[in-house]
């Protein structure tokens, strides 16, 4: 598919743009340094250079991000977090705590079994139904749910990473609860983005996630760009619910479709407790 191509994105030079609220003549592109920051603008699907940096006035298309604001009401958010807090949270890496609902996986050996998995939690059933009403999430069948709890006092963060794609499918869906944060997208492969002729090996795109928003990463944003959350972007307690679907290998017609179907039947019983 097109998401696996390595063509450099087209760069747009924004000289005057009302929605950016300022007329601007960009700096010559050769002045851009590695690590310049861009901000994702959902309405336009562009990563736009931050003001007062050499990237100001530049933008490039940034496909593969869907952001739905106010996905839940405040009352629904409070009820969800209350339900999660009734189960124990396990310590995780980088100051996070977690609750997992999913199969037992060894990614290095590519081994998978149901283990203690008895399904996604009952409180997720309505969320999943609501998500699937969006065209980009049509046919989305979550087989795994991971709840993460971030607190500034614990220095909670998550390092830049790409989610596995042997087991997990194209769409990664996360619900951001209790406080706003920033998803930092970086692309540091050897096929670095060529901003004109300037190799910007570590361009960062900030995707601002409001409280109670739902974000979906797919296509290039899923397979080419690492995502992270830095400590400085955790200002208050943040709870995140991430849902993952199965890859084609475990789906209908795939090599392991029977195991995939068994795991989906378990997941979608919505009778689960954290494993």
From TrEMBL:
Origin superkingdom: Eukaryota
Cofactor (UniProt): Fe(2+)
Xref: InterPro entries: AlkB-like_sf (IPR037151), ALKBH4 (IPR032857)
Cellular component, GO annotation: contractile ring; midbody
SUPFAM superfamilies reported in the protein's UniProt record: Clavaminate synthase-like (SSF51197)
GO molecular function: actin binding; demethylase activity; oxidoreductase activity
GO biological process, one term: actomyosin structure organization
This protein's name: AlkB homolog 4, lysine demethylase
Source species: Crocodylus porosus (Saltwater crocodile)
């Amino acid at each position: 598919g097109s998401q696996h191509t390595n063509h450099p994105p087209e760069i747009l030079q924004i000289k005057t743009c009302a929605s950016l609220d300022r007329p601007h003549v960009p700096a010559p592109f050769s002045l851009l340094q590695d690590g310049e920051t861009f901000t994702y603008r959902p309405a336009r699907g562009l990563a736009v250079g931050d003001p007062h940096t050499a990237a100001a006035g530049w933008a490039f298309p940034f496909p593969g991000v869907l952001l739905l604001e106010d996905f839940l009401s405040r009352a629904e958010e409070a009820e969800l977090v209350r339900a999660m807090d009734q189960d124990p949270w396990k310590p995780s890496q980088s100051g996070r705590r977690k609750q997992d609902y999913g199969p037992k996986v060894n990614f290095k050996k590519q081994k998978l079994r149901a283990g203690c998995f008895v399904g996604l939690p009952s409180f997720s059933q309505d969320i999943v139904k609501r998500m699937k009403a969006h065209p980009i999430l049509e046919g989305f069948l979550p087989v795994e749910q991971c709840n993460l709890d971030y607190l500034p006092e614990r220095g909670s963060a998550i390092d830049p990473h790409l989610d596995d794609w042997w087991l997990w499918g194209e769409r990664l869906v996360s619900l951001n609860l209790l406080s706003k944060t920033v998803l930092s997208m970086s692309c540091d492969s050897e096929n670095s983005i060529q901003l004109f002729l300037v190799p910007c090996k570590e361009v960062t795109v900030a995707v601002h996630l409001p409280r109670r928003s739902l974000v979906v990463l797919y296509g290039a944003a899923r397979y080419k760009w690492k995502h992270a959350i830095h400590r400085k972007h955790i200002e208050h307690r943040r709870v995140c619910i991430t849902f993952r679907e199965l890859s084609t290998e475990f789906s209908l017609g795939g090599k392991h479709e029977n195991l995939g179907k068994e795991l989906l039947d378990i997941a979608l019983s919505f009778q689960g407790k954290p494993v």
